[in-house]
Amino acid sequence: MPKLYEYFGMVVYFFSREHEPIHVHGKYQDREMSKRKFDIKIIREPVDEKNIEVIDIVRAEYLADYKIHLVFNDGRSHTVDFEPFLRNAKNPAATQYLDMQKFKQFRLAYGNLDWNDYEMCFAIEDLYNNDIEVELSAKDKRTLEKMSQQLLH
What we know:
single chain, alpha+beta, 5 helices
């Protein structure tokens, strides 16, 4: 059950081998719901896997402070500074990683950085572009607010 998001006790997660249509589950205290409306296009045509480039992190090395040097499978490498993200984060699930001992406990999982079984992780594209966001987009905030309201009622 990969956790997508947690905010003050509300958890949004999905089951990777569950039925279609694609949906997520939300849980808050003893209430639970699922949401099926997404802007996702499912490709049902055969895909030529030879033309798909999958980017993975093949090596991650802690340097100092909140900096991790990443090496990708296409040879690209750079250092990502997570400190601005962690210092500006409002969610306790993220700010707990200001504790250096916790921050250093990352691992590589399926080609991506992972802290504590996906308690904190980042989109591989953002890490590849060295562009980790501090804030959710306005659209994502509205979606989460709607899901929160549905869970509470």
